[in-house]
Amino acid sequence: MVTPLIDTFDNLKTQRRLLNDDELQYEYPDLASFLNKTNRNVHAANKELSFVMEFLYIMGRKSNGTYLRFRNEIERWCLFCWQHNDKGIFEVTRKDIEAYIDFVYQPDKAWIGTSVQQRFIVKNGQSVSNSKWRPFVAKLAKSLTKKNPLQAAQPDAYRPSQESLVSTFTALSVLYQHAQMEEVCDKNYVPVVKKSCPYLIKQVQRKTPDTLSQLQWEYVLGITKDACEESPKFERNLFVIATLKSLYLRVSELSEHAKWSPRMSDFSVDNDGFWYLTVFGKGNKIRDVTVPPAYMPYLKRYRLSRGLSSLPSPDEDSSMLNKLRGSGNLTARQIRRIVEESFDLAIKALQRDGFEDDANYLMAATTHWLRHTGATEDAGSRPLKHLADELGHASSETTDKNYIQSNIKDRARSGQGRKV
């Protein structure tokens, strides 16, 4: 029976302390029982898990997203080594890693779930392993789920995406680099295995990011505006979609998290009348995003709907996105639900008006498409360096590859005169 190993980042230090003090059974009884059985075959399982927890704590201090990605990958690896190979993670050979990549590409059915589940459930003060949790999750395409909510994903059809495979190699390689630095092991076979991996596909030219068409965006924006006339609660929806699209924001840059709590005072104006929004972005970097005049009416109407003045003051402590019940900002998950609500309204309107293809395409859209849509629209009219700074890209090359793609466009132009 496969079992979860590692709790949330907030509980990680406590979990590791219990493991090191041999007190895990008092708060994580199922995990303690699993490790006792495992240690009969893998003598260093407890010690290896403690090392992994320490490593994940270091990674998690950078960002919770990094922690979640690395935890998922390394937890799978530990379970595979201990349960499939009866080996410790620092006893493996190159062939073991190759076998694991084969396994990741086509896992045992017993390791595949059809829904995301929390790892531990608190019962009577103890963290009990969730029997429904699985290391891998088969998911249906979002558009298929919208068309038929009762349709279920099939474990047999599970295959990892290219991004997921790359993430697997990255997490394992960084783990073994850290282990080498700590002198726990002397070899890192992961780069060699990655180089010869038959499942990785090299992509010479990055594809254009997914975006909404002009028609789809007009429907999303227009239908949300119409909804505001029926219910004031949709003013928040309107503000969210306008902000994410117009200011090219990631959801994490608008949401509440441990390191940043967005406030209305994050909007500021300089002596020349230019407005900016200060955001906390990837890599723990703070940047100022310029705010265009066309966006200002959406900021004003949202603030007025909350009973605030039309424009924020420098010392204002109001939350950026208020909860309808309770205090504080919205989480990333809550923001995604709001965007999804506006998308669903637009899908129904597109279907009603006969734009079936546009409605079907919009079913696949995610919140991140709004950032891509805004940046792609403006890529042809703004200097590359300016767009890169607005997006929070460390390199203009990233912006060019994602939104401008000058190399392939130049190649397309030069090939227009070819004869048949």
Radius of gyration: 24 Å
Characterize the biggest β-sheet: 3 strands, antiparallel
Q: Helicity range of the residues?
A: 40-55%
Mean pLDDT: 90
* Uncertain segments: none
Number of helices: 18
Order of helices and strands: HHHHHHEEEEHHHHHEEEHHHHHHH
How are strands sequenced across the largest beta sheet? 5-6-7
Q: Give the termini separation.
A: 62 Å
What structural category do the secondary elements indicate? mainly alpha
Briefly characterize the structure.
It contains 18 helices and seven strands. It has 420 residues and is mainly alpha-helical.
Explain what the structure shows.
- The protein has helices at 9-20, 24-27, 29-38, 45-60, 64-85, 94-105, 142-147, 162-181, 190-195, 214-230, 234-246, 296-305, 332-352, 356-362, 368-378, 384-391, 396-404, 406-414; strands at 112-113, 120-123, 126-129, 136-137, 267-269, 275-281, 285-291.
- The termini are far apart.
- The relative contact order is 0.08.
- A hairpin with a 5-residue loop joins β5 (267-269) and β6.
- Helix content is 51%, strand content 7%.
- It is mainly alpha-helical and 420 residues long.
- It is built from 18 helices and seven strands.
